[in-house]
Write a structure and sequence with these properties.
This protein is mainly alpha-helical and 160 residues long. It has helices at residues 2-14, 21-31, 37-49, 90-102, 106-119, 126-137, 142-159; strands at residues 19-20, 53-56, 59-62. Helix 2 (21-31) packs across helix 3 (37-49), helix 4 (90-102) packs parallel to helix 6 (126-137) and helix 5 packs across helix 6 (126-137). This is DUF2240 family protein.
Length: 160
Amino acid sequence: MGELKKIIAKVFLRKRRQITRSEFIFALSHDLRWFSKKEAEKIFEVSVRENLLEDKEGVIRTKFDFYRVDLPHDFKPEPNFKFKFKEEKSLDVILKRIMKEKKLDEKEAMAEINKAREDFKGLISREVSALMVARDMGVDIDDVLERYHRELVEKRLKSI
């Protein structure tokens, strides 16, 4: 997480306290030339998921004091940094959000998801069950719907 914090701090120290998502991605891919646009988008997503960045109505803010990050003047991310992040599956993302927002441990959250699945006699996937449970609990999962749709499409394409 230290390397990711340094990357974020470098962007915000060059820019200002709040920027847009596109400014963040542009800074990483064009200003600093550290990553491709796609890699920069991935870094943004991971930063939000890891609770280092907050995206409120298109305005991005850090969730930590970037002025306090120990950042050498000539800082550049290590060459293999972009390969460290594996995208989490939708189920994992939903599970973590339920646990965090509803203060449940993993066992309790999975029990809720499995119960909802059993209510449908196992005819729905765990992911769909998790989406339903999260929605019923008032957990915001709108962004995960798009990710889950993408996973379904990729899975379908692989089976063809």
